[in-house]
Amino acid sequence: MAILAAALTWRLVGTASEGADAAPVSTVEEAAPQSFEEMRELAEQAGGDPVPWQRLGFAHFSANMYPEAAEAYEEAVERAPDSADLWSALGEARIYADESDPMPPAALEAFRRSVALDPGNPRARYFLAVQRDLSGDNDGAIADWLALLADTPPGAPWETDLIRTISQVGQREEIDLQPRIEQAMATRDILPASATGGIPGPTQDQMAAAAGMSPGQQQDMAEDMVSRLAARLEGDPANVDGWIMLMRSYQTLGRTGQARDAYAHALEANPQAEGQLRAAAEALGL
After folding, report:
1. Mean of per-residue pLDDT scores for the chain
2. How many domains does the chain have?
3. Are residues 132 and 245 in the same domain?
4. CA-based diameter of the chain, in Å?
5. How far apart are CA 134 and CA 151, in angstroms?
6. What angle do CA 240, 229, 23 make, to 5 degrees?
7. Which residue among 83, 85, 116, 162 has the highest number of C-beta atoms inside a 10 angstrom radius?
8. What is the pLDDT of residues 21-63, one digit of tens each?
9. Is residue 193 part of a domain?
10. Residue 231 burial by Cβ neighbours in a 10 Å radius (0-12, 13-18, 19+)
C-alpha cells in the first residue's frame, strides 16, 4: 500500500531553501487580526499584494480549514505567480482539502509549478516523491526522498519527519534503508545544494572526504567554505544568489548575527532585489 501523502506536513510558509522566490512572501510571524473575516477583508483591500492572502491561507490551514486555505493560496499565487513557496503551499492545501484522492491533479500541478520555479523547493520535492510512491514507483520515491534528505540542512524543521517517512516506507517495503539514510546525512552539504554564479561549494570529492571526518573537522571544513564565499562576495556584491547562500550558510552554522549582517550588506548592494532578499531572510527567520 502506498504511503499516505499526509505522512509529512509542511506547516511552514517558508523554509531555508525557499528564499529565492521573486515574490515578497512573508513567514506569517507578524501580528494578525483576530478573525478570519478581518483577515479576508484586509486581503481584499490589498490589491496585488500576495502576503495578506498568504497569511489567510496559513491561518486557515493551521485551523484545519483546508478548502478555505486552498482558496486563499489560489488568490496569493494569482498575485505572485513566480513564488515557488506559494505554489507548494497551495499544492499541500489542495491535498488536505480533497478527502477522496491522496494526490489530486490540481495539487500535483501546483507542485510541478513550484519545482519549475525552484527545483530545490523541499515541500514540492517531498510531495512529488509521494506521487511516485502512490503510482507504484517505490524505489524512485525512496531515491527522491533520500536526495531531499541529502540537501536538507542539519536541524531543518522537516528533517525528523522526512527521516521517519523514509524509515516507514522501508519497513513497508521490507528494505533496510538505515545505511542509505546515514549516508545521505553524512554527505550532505553544509551549504545550499546548488552553487550558482560561480560560488564555491563542496565537490563530490569533498563530500566524500567529509563523510570520513570527525565532527570537528567537518565544522572546520564548513567554516572555511563559508569564509571563502564571504570573500568572493566582497569582489562580487551584485551576486544576489551568493548573498542568499551566505545568509543561509551563516544561519546553518548558528551565526544569526552574521546572517543578518550579510542580509544588510546584500540589500545595500542590491536594492533592486529587495523582494527576493526579504523573502529569503524571512524564510531563514532573520
Report:
1. 77
2. 2
3. no
4. 56
5. 23
6. 20
7. 85
8. 333 333 333 444 468 999 999 999 988 888 889 889 988 988 8
9. no
10. exposed
